[in-house]
Amino acid sequence: MTFYDLPAPAKLNLFLHVVGRREDGYHLLQSLFRLISLSDSITIDLRRDGRISRESTLTEQIADESDLVVRAARAIQRATGCVLGAHIHVNKRIPSGAGLGGGSSDAATVLLALNRMWRTGLNRQQLMAIGLTLGADVPFFLQGTAAFVQGIGEQIESVNVPDISYLVFKPDVHIETAAVFTDPDLTRDSETVKITDFSGCINFVGSGNTVQNRLSDGVIMRNKTIWSGSGFGKNDLEAVVLRRFAAVHRVKSWLSTLGVEARLSGSGSCLFAEADTPESAQLASEELLAKMQSGNEISNFKLGGSLKSVHVCDGLQFHPLKDWVSDSLGSRQVG
């Protein structure tokens, strides 16, 4: 049995507030997570010998104990006592060290797929509990919709978000999450917000209150966060990342000179900006790339070769595999 080309979509943090820190060192967050169309692809072959093996399009080899895909497969084996195995191939498209949740999304897709392939019968809440042991972002991908996420990733509330397209900019730098969260200058006491506050702000979308910027060829992009008036839209990690990683700072500054106010996703390195339609996102991408390649002295000085790639993405309302697991309670015991 083989499951071919299973999607593992990336995410954006539309805002991210650090509101505290537990005694065990874990940071308490409030964030709005949103799935996007940029996606890894995973193929899984059933093995009957109980072994878990993995290959990837990445040239860099990851030790099994550090590989979220392998850890996810072994975690569901332990939780259910399943004696089957799997060979997992990951076709990576989501940049790593980018704040897009690629590794966590891969782990979530593996949990969803093996739960079905091995017929282990776990429901969504049980898979999410396993996912939380792997990483704070994994439960969000298993939950399967845009969500207001709190705590260390365990408090997840679905929200409705508008159909918006995005430009995602990947600076030429890999950022380890721990390097950002351990920085002594990180803001750790942002004021908490309520989901009802967010619901009020979302009404501004399409109402004429959104500030827009028109690039030279008539491409319309938002250059202000749609939540700026209520304190939403900031990322508490951004100041640390801009100070410590020059490539991110250069890309953000370059975009700003063109009227595009990009924001950091997660702990970076990726920045993103919103566009009204997929067509305007694609046109903006082409124009920005043309400016980058034009040889203009000012542009080259601002950018300094720091931008590695630009991705045009659609926002997703649902994870493509959301219906692969039941929300209802089953009889399967996890332990």
Describe the overall structure.
This protein has 10 helices and 12 strands. The protein starts with a strand and ends in a 21-residue tail after the last strand. The radius of gyration is 20 Å and the shape is globular. Mean pLDDT is 86; it is low at 202-230. The longest helix has 16 residues, at 102-117. The strands form 3 sheets. Strands 1, 2, 3, 4, 5 and 6 form a 6-stranded mixed beta sheet that branches. Strands 10-11-7-12 form a 4-stranded antiparallel beta sheet. It is α+β, with helices and mostly antiparallel strands and 335 residues long. It has 2 domains: 2-159, Ribosomal Protein S5, domain 2 (2-Layer Sandwich), CATH 3.30.230.10; 165-314, 2-Layer Sandwich (Alpha-Beta Plaits). One of its GO terms (molecular function) is 4-(cytidine 5'-diphospho)-2-C-methyl-D-erythritol kinase activity. Keywords: ATP-binding, Isoprene biosynthesis, Kinase, Nucleotide-binding, Transferase. Pathway: Isoprenoid biosynthesis; isopentenyl diphosphate biosynthesis via DXP pathway; isopentenyl diphosphate from 1-deoxy-D-xylulose 5-phosphate: step 3/6.
Label this structure with key terms.
single chain; 335 residues; alpha+beta; Ribosomal Protein S5, domain 2; 2 domains; six-stranded mixed β-sheet; four-stranded antiparallel β-sheet
Cα-atom radius of gyration: 20 Å
Report low-confidence residues grouped into runs of 5 or more. 202-230
**Tally of individual helices:** 10
Name of the CATH architecture of the largest domain: 2-Layer Sandwich
Give the biggest sheet: 6 strands, mixed
As for the CATH topology of the largest domain, it is Ribosomal Protein S5, domain 2
Intertermini distance: 26 Å
What is the average per-residue confidence, as pLDDT, rounded to a whole number? Answer: 86
Beta strand count? 12
Percent in helix: 25-40%
The helix-strand sequence is: EEEHEHHHEEEHHEEHHEEHHE
Class from helix and strand fractions: alpha+beta
**What does the overall shape look like?**
globular
Into which percentage range does the β-strand content fall?
Answer: 25-35%
Q: What is the CATH class designation of the largest domain?
A: Alpha Beta
Family: Belongs to the GHMP kinase family. IspE subfamily.
Catalytic activity: 4-CDP-2-C-methyl-D-erythritol + ATP = 4-CDP-2-C-methyl-D-erythritol 2-phosphate + ADP + H(+)
EC number: 2.7.1.148
Protein name: 4-diphosphocytidyl-2-C-methyl-D-erythritol kinase
